[in-house]
Every structure is written in structure tokens, then in C-alpha cells.
């Protein structure tokens, strides 16, 4: 690492998010890195995971083939388990939990986050025909807190931490915190505030990789 | 005697017309009424409006598609209302060519519109989608300091539903995450058709456990079709 | 009976309604005479009774004290039973059945019915403070058919079969048939049509007891 | 460890403030949280808005009132939102004297407004009440050829709920018609307090049978209070 710091990998980002989720919270983990975060929440820390397709109290993937229940899949259609205390509901009741403001936290993947809390995570073009929204808009609007996990920049080095999103919005002003492979940023009334960085990274270096102005 | 059981797929599919709006339950493979979808393909109705969580996926060249994706591929679908369109490249092409319409909407809004249709709520406000492309052309009104958009109930002429257990009154119990859209599509369908793994004697389904009471069900076809598969 | 005809009593009215309810219908029977109608539907004729408080497939009152379940009461808070095939739901789901148009029939008591199908059955004054609505408005609007059972006239001889209701409405244009102690009347686009009368009663005698014009 | 059980009525009632909107479940005696209502009387909060199916009944002279009727009689209620007011003559008198407000609404609209509050729907249209006194001051719009009125969600600061079984996560199962308003008031309450007949070990309530998942519940008080009584 000639740059003097080491960006987090997917697992590292997932672990960093997981460290901040306290016991007792009701949490939805979006598709991708957010889903990985579940593996970094110790079982004894009771966090109740919600899955849009009607599961509350979701557990990890089956430990063995004997435990596989093909009727029990998560929102990414991966096979999962149910914890003691878990239950099933239908889709409208499941989204009542989301839209009714009952989730303490939703962790979503993102394309772009703006300093006003706007999130873009479902489409890169307003004219795209092959769209997919899934539960992202409901979760972004409905959860008490929305955290976003994403690479700090695109693969070709474009910033994702922006003054204003250029992609179509998922929801306006919904994000309260962003976890990237380089830093953790809070969205405040005064814009992005850096609350953590990977070792060896300077604020100036982080700012150079961000469009929005960062404060510390 | 009330007996909603039907003896054949032909009987289950009877009367579904060209131009019908068809609600198709399921999330992933769990709780998806695959056999009924195949029955609908066979039955031949066209110009359909499909309401389904995912528009399905197109497999590699040479592999047969099925269900929703097959109906679309066959040109039987006029419009699809869904939350996931990306994995069906055929659907995307048909939309670009103007041969099929697609309305991609938030999953919670889809669920709520179905539940509204089944519950006599013609329209409701929701903050989901406000300030996004989803809000285009929709009335906006502020509640609790947030902009909300007006969404309409989404009823179906037909609902295709999968259940684990059923009785002759049409009471339904689902399995784990196989519940998903099934109960609310059953409510929202004018003609609700069920494929059930098990038929139980009337009175043996525990009354506190019944999820969909028979009032929402018209036909039950006994089809023990095995476990859901992973997407592949 | 100097008048040459014998008005039906409460049980007679209930039995008359019950005779018209076919097997397989989902039916809500309102408080009062409508509730009595259940006793006149033979068990072998499968009619599925709905109660607003979350019962579908309601059965009769317990036959003996041994059968009493204090947790199972109908919308009149009388103890009832559950038939094989019955189930329980919560209040919003119960009214989804009502408001979503899933009931084939609702039978309600009435104060007044007008020739345009308007029903008044919940209040006799727009300024009443001790109001009660219960589920009447939902049932009147939501069921596929609304039948009303009531005395043909008030206790002091005022007509209840009217050109227009004078009491506050329960719902506009909702009634399709009226069962009184004297007759059965259909509400048609041309007004009330008499389809049955108690033996010995003439149309002229029935008309004399009605404000709206009756046809036969 | 998530443990929503509280050890005393005082703990259950802690923090209910003057001016609170309190949702009280129950239909007849079944599923009514009588002990919690008594607890609220003892706790002392006043200027309450009560949301309850029935405003209760006043007994003959000399017989003590209880629950909702007692709260009203004590002058602790600023407003009651209900579907049955007639049997409470004290409530009627207080309304006439301008000492209490009453909003008498259709039962299905009450249920739907509660469910809406729990589900993030701030407002919805319904044909129920259109063209009646209930429609006064409400927006009217036509859907499917019928006039519909706009109704607002009805959230509570507090919900008082009765359940047959509960666990430490707050999962609830109800008994027969004791279910009634309990699940939707649990959803609509900011602080949902439950009296439960039985506390079960976590993991012993069958996941398909849970009616109210613990996400809607804040406090559980173990109170085996016996069977419901008939009105007398």
C-alpha cells in the first residue's frame, strides 16, 4: 500500500457496520455488503433481523444441509434460518413494519449519497428500462435510521460522496450515516462529518476522494 | 356444501380472459404458484397485465424459461407491474421496443396497493417514492412534515396463489417465507385460484392458525409439487 | 285479528329472511332480529357467518354450559361457538372482508329505508350526543347486498318505508331488499316493489302503511 | 438480551403523560386490558384522548363503574374516539355540558385508521361514511363511481393490549375473539403495553402462529386475570 493506508474489503466494511449495531435493535440489512454484516453480530447480542419477505428474527445461513429449509429464504432468496423468537408475516404486514417506522435501522447499499442525506441506490439512469426498486425506497423512507455501506468511489475513481446526487433518488434526505471502505461519515445539518477513518488515511486524502466538503 | 376444490388444471383456469389482470404470488421460489403459472401458459389467455414481485429471469441460451418469464417471452403480456425487472433481459427488450409496458414500483407500495384493493381502500397516501421517479404524475400532499404521494388500489381479475394447507372452504395456511404475497393477493383477486400441497379435512386447520380465511378463495387445486428451488 | 292478516313477530321475520339465504354465502347478521335469523338457517345449509369482531364461520350459542367459551363472543357480545372451517382475524382484517366487498350479504336492522335505497339505522337525530355507529356504516357500504329487517311502521304508526329518509343516513342507496313484519320489498330503479306479503294483506292496505309508492 | 417483561403495574404505566392519546383494545369483555385500564386510573394521567371501541357502560346507581367508563366518570378524559357511546350516560352528559369531546366513528374506519397509523399510511380514502354525518368537514372524491371520504391515520402515544400468550421479545398470541383490536392497536401505539395471561419461553411460540411480532410491543406484564365476563 504505497498510499500508507489500507482500504477495507467487503468483510471489513460489514464488520465495521456490525460493530455499531446495539443489542435490541430491529434491523433490516439490504442486499450485498449489508447482508454480510449479520455474520459479524455475535449471537449473544440480540439484534432482531427483518427480511422484507415476511421474516422477523432471521438467523444465519443453515450450518449444515440437515438444517436447510427450502421454504425459508431471505430477501436475496438465500436460504436462512429462524432464531428463537422469530415469526412470519405476509408482505403487507412486513412492510407495515418498514413503512410504519418500526425498524430502528436499515442498512442499504448505495451508488451515491449527498450531503443533504439524499440517497441514490436503485438506478443509474432516469431512462433505464430494466429497472429494479425492490424494497429500497420503502426502507429508505420508513426506517428510523438509514445507514449506507458502499465503496468510497466508483471503480473508475468517481466520487460517491457528493454535494447532490446525479442518479435518480431512492429517497430524499434519508441517510444518517455512511460506511465506506475508507471512512465513516455522519450526515449532519452542516453536511458530512468524518467520525472514523482507516488507519493511515488523512482527512485531506479522504477529501480528495469526495466531492462534498467534509468536516471532522 | 361449500367445496372449492377443483379436480383439474383446466377447471382451475376456466374463465380467465384475454386482457385480464393476473396477480402472481411468490418471492423467489418460495410460495410461487408455478404449476398454476404453467396452467395459465397452457390455457392461452393473452394481452395480460401481470402483477408480480419479480418479472423473472431469463436463463442462458438453450435453457427453457418458465412462469412469468415464459409468459413474457411468449408475448402474452401487455403490461407488467413489478419491483424487479432487471434480470429479465427479454422483458427489458420488449419494453424498449414498445411491445410491452412495465411499471416498476416499490415493493412495499405494491404490497400496500394489493392489501388496499382487498380491503376497500381505493387510494392512500404514502411517503415512499415521494421526490423520486416513482412520484411522476402523482398527487403530492404533505403529512407530518413529509411529502406523500397518492397511490391507487391494485385489484386483480385473477390471483394465483400457493398454499401449504387448504380445506374445502378454501382456508389457507402457508409455510414460512412461502407466505409472502399470497394472503394479500388472495384478498385482492376477484377470482382467487390456489394450488395447495395438502388438503385437510374441514375443521382440522386450527382456527387461530388460519392465515387466509376461505372468504378470499374461489378455487383450490390439490398439487403436491415439492420444495422450492434456489434460483439457478 | 280484525284486520284479516297477522303481522309476523320477531321470530317470523327472522325465519322469513333466513329462508332466502342460499348455501355458500358469506353473511353478516346485524344486531337484533338479523342475529335471530341464524337460528333459522339449517346446519346442513352451509352459510358462513361473519362477525365484525373477527370471527368467520360463527356457529350458534353454546348448547350447554360445558361448551361455553368466554373468549368467543359475537358482535352483540353474546357467547357463540365456531363451526368447523371457522377462523379468527383481527379487527382490520375483519373489516377488510366487509369493506373489501367480500360479504355476499349483510342483514341489518333499520329505522327507515327510502325508495332510492337510502338507509337510516343508527341515529334518530343529527344533534344526538349519545351516538353509536358500530359497524353499520361499513356493512351498509361494503357488502355485495344489504337487506334490512324492521317493523313496517314505528310504534306510533309512522311509516318507515319512505320517499326519503328523515333520520341521518347510514349509507346512501345501499339497500336492495326490505323484510318487514308485513311484507318483503325489493328496492328497484323504479322504487319499492312488493314481492311477498303476509297472508290476508292487500297491496292497498300495505300502501296505506307506507309513505313511498309501492308497485307489485 | 431483549426482555420486555416488567415486574409491576407501576413499571408498566411509567411515563404515560397528561394529554396522551391512549388506545384501549377489547371488544365486549374479550381481549380488553382491564388490569391495565385500572393501572392507568391509579397512575393518574389526565386530559387523555381515549380511542376505544365502546365508551363503556354506566351501571345502576351504587354499582361501581370500571375501565373506560370509570376514567370518563373521573373527568380524566378530554376526548373519546369511539364507535359506541350510547350506553354510557355519563359520557353523553359530559359531552352535552361541553366537558368532554366525543368523536363517534364507524368501527371499520376506526380499525383501518389504526392499521394505517401502524403501517405508515397517513391518510386513505373510503366509501364508508360518505354522504352521512361522518363525512362532515372531510374531503370527498369519487372512486369506482362512488363518493369516498378522506380519513386520517389514528396513532396513539400509548396502546393498552391484552394477550393470551407472550414471550420476552413481546411476541403475542391471542385467544379466539379476544384478538379484535389488539394487534392493530399494538401496531399503532408509540408505547405498547401488554397484559399477558401466560409468559412462554422464547422459541416456544410457534413462528407461524404469532399474530403480533414483538417489534410492535414495548412492555409485557404477566397478569393471569381469568376469563372474560359477560356484560351485566
Tally of DSSP β-strands of chain A:
13
Output the helix-strand order of chain B. Answer: EHEHEHEHEHEEEEEHEE
Alpha-beta content class of chain B: alpha/beta
Q: Work out the helix count of chain A.
A: 5
Which residues of chain A form runs of ≥5 with pLDDT under 50?
A: none
What class, by secondary structure content of chain A? alpha/beta
The CATH class of chain A turns out to be Alpha Beta
Please summarize the sheet with the most strands of chain A: 10 strands, mixed
Task: Write a compact overview of the structure shown.
The complex is a heterotetramer, with 2 copies of chain A (216 residues) and 2 copies of chain B (232 residues). With 216 residues, chain A is of the alpha/beta class.
Describe the structure.
The complex is a heterotetramer, with 2 copies of chain A (about 220 residues) and 2 copies of chain B (about 230 residues). Chain A is about 15% helix and about 25% strand. Chain A has a 10-stranded mixed beta sheet. Chain A has a 3-stranded mixed beta sheet with strand order 7-6-9, with no helix packed on it. By secondary structure, chain A is of the alpha/beta class. In chain A, helix 3 (about 90-100) crosses helix 4. Chain A has one domain (about 10-215): Glutaconate Coenzyme A-transferase, CATH 3.40.1080. Chain A has 5 helices and 13 strands. The longest helix of chain A is centred in the first third of the chain and has 10 residues, at about 10-20. The model of chain A has no long low-confidence stretch (mean pLDDT about 95). Chain B is α/β, with parallel strands linked by helices. Chain B has a single domain, classed as Glutaconate Coenzyme A-transferase. Chain B is built from 6 helices and 12 strands. Chain B has helices at about 10-15, 35-45, 65-75, 90-95, 105-120, 180-190; strands spanning about 5, 20-25, 50, 75-80, 100-105, 125, 140-145, 145-150, 155-165, 170-175, 190-200, 220. In chain B, strands 1, 2, 3, 4, 5, 9, 10, 11 and 12 form a 9-stranded mixed beta sheet that branches. Chain B has a 3-stranded antiparallel beta sheet with strand order 6-8-7. In chain B, helix 2 (about 35-45) links the parallel strand 2 (about 20-25) and strand 3. In chain B, helix 5 (about 105-120) packs across helix 6. The mean pLDDT of chain B is about 95. Chains in contact: A-B, A-D, B-C, B-D, C-D. At the C-D interface, helix 3 and helix 4 of C face helix 4, helix 5 and helix 6 of D.
